[in-house]
Amino acid sequence: MTTADAALATRPRNLLTLGDLPPADLDHLVARGAVMAERVAAGDPELAGVLRGRVAGIYFTRTSTRTRTAFSSAALRLGSGLISYGPGDLQVNTGETIADTGRVLSGMLDLLVVRTAGPVAEMAALAAHPRMAVVNAMSAEEHPTQALADLTTLQRHFGRVDGLRVLYVGEGNNTATALTLALNRYPAAELHLRTPPGYGLPPGFPHVNERHDMDDLPADVDVVYTTRWQTTGTTKPDPDWRDVFAPFRVDDDLLARWPDAIFLHDLPAHRGEEVTASVLDGPRSLAFAQAENKLYSAMAVLEWAGGARW
Ligand code: CP
Fold this sequence. Notes:
The protein is an alpha/beta fold. About 35% of the residues lie in helices and about 15% in strands. It has 11 helices and 9 strands. It has helices at about 5-10, 25-40, 65-75, 100-105, 120-125, 145-160, 175-185, 240-245, 250-255, 275-280, 285-305, and strands at about 55-60, 80-85, 110-115, 135, 165-170, 190-195, 210, 225, 260-265. A 5-stranded parallel sheet has the order 7-6-5-8-9. A 4-stranded parallel sheet has the order 2-1-3-4, with helices on both faces. The longest helix has 19 residues, at about 25-40. The chain is globular. It starts with a helix and ends in a 5-residue tail after the last helix. Bound molecules: phosphoric acid mono(formamide)ester. Phosphoric acid mono(formamide)ester binds near residues 64, 138 and 232.
């Protein structure tokens, strides 16, 4: 363990928003996700001792294929016990407060991974107790663990994050918010956002290069990234929203502008909407490797949040 790693090894650590994550911790989590991928591939038997004796809770009130499985698998691979709560399981459904729920769970769990449709502030109420680390596995405003997996994907593919040029095309949703917060931490990284009019990032982001059209696209990019037009758990009030989004579809013609760029998608995808099948399933798409990286990134997050030594 290096001195810097030792300084990180105090527990527990909450991951509620990337806006609160110190740059050194972001660097650590991105690099550590790549290390976890290598350790899993090598069958490292020491992984099973990382969280031995700990118990993690997984509380998802919204659907999930990747994130819930990634964190559940990560907890088990690191030797943690695991309790999984679905949307109807906790007494919050019968009126118990989030604050009381967090207080009770913190006496029994070491880690809690949470997905809700509510605000980060709701998770902060769960995280008010020092014995239990809380990880935001997607909230209304932000999807921080998606961005960590995305950056781990970049780290594994390019060997770096800083200096990369990323073009994000699509809604300014919680994935875009997290990606923006993460890439803004890298001084030489470029993020170009092209979001449909009326569907941009929330106001207040400093240093954001965002436009609401597909004109004058950057000459060179390393990554083209899009997300599903219907973000999980949300609906759009405008009945004509598909017309507004149509120019922002990623197809072969768009990708052909940057012959060396890779394509990323956080999934789930709707082929024919935000991306054509030829792009998503094509040779430049890392979308399914990106999904697998959610496991390795989740292992890094749980190790970090649990304050385990490495
Ligand atoms: N990208 C993502 O968060 O996928 P799930 O909704 O399946 O977890």
